[in-house]
Design brief:
With 74 residues, the protein is mainly α. It contains five helices and no strands. The protein is globular and about 35 Å long.
C-alpha cells in the first residue's frame, strides 16, 4: 500500500487520504488517522485510545486496506 501511494505526487496523496478520512464513519479509525496527522507516535495513539499495540497494528492494516481500496476507486 505504501508503495502504491508513493507513486502519486504528494498533493495527490494528501487529497486521496483526506478524501478517505472524510468518508470514514468508524470513529476509532478516524481518530487514529487524525492523531497520526498531528504527528503522534504509535505509543501516543495507543495511550490516547487505550489500545494494545496489536490492536493498533490491526486497525492500521484496516486503514491501509481502506486507503488502497479508495485509491482504486478513483
Amino acid at each position: 500500500m505504501t508503495n502504491a501511494l508513493s507513486l502519486l505526487p504528494s498533493e495527490d496523496r494528501r487529497d486521496l487520504v483526506r478524501s478517505y478520512i472524510e468518508q470514514l464513519n468508524d470513529r476509532t479509525l478516524l481518530l487514529i488517522c487524525k492523531l497520526y496527522s498531528l504527528g503522534k507516535t504509535d505509543r501516543d495513539v495507543c495511550d490516547a485510545l487505550h489500545l494494545t499495540p496489536d490492536t493498533l497494528a490491526s486497525l492500521k492494516q484496516t486503514i491501509a486496506e481502506g486507503i488502497l481500496a479508495h485509491m482504486q476507486g478513483h
